[in-house]
Amino acid sequence: MASQSSISGGSGGPSKPSELSKRLDLDGHDLPPSPAPSSPRNGRRRYALATELVYTETNDQYGSSSIPIYQSATFKQSSARGGNSEYDYTRSGNPTRTHLERHMAKIMNASRALAVGSGCDVEEQAGKDEMEETESEIDAVHG
Questions:
Q1: What's the number of domains the chain is made of?
Q2: Quick check: 21 and 123 in contact, CB under 8 A?
Q3: The domain that contains 82 carries what CATH number?
Q4: Per-residue model confidence as pLDDT tens digits over 12-33
Q5: Which of 6, 28, 92, 105 could pair covalently with 34 via S-S, beta carbons 3.0-4.6 A apart?
Q6: Which residues span the domain enclosing 97?
């Protein structure tokens, strides 16, 4: 998982933009933004981690109390050329993954987070050969 705060470098000081940060273009909104990261900067109260972990905002069209798991491989498009839909194919994103990314960004107090399904996806997204330890933070979960 990469966040804006972890791209800046491990020494605490600013670092020059790397190929990785250019590719991810965090300021260009390639990653979904957190809906409401809690921090003094945005005036939202920071709750205890346990509270942040269990509380999620859902805008499900059917009013579900938790986020539904979307398992579809494809999503309906308005035309054969594609539409203006946010999602087209599950591997490139789906509502469940978007919610996970936003929730992770919120609880980590980051502006954005990226969730991927495999190590191959990490290599594709971040260019493993071009990464340095101080440029990115990648966490393995269940693997």
A1: 1
A2: no
A3: 3.40.640.10
A4: 444 444 444 444 444 444 555 5
A5: 105
A6: 4-11+32-130
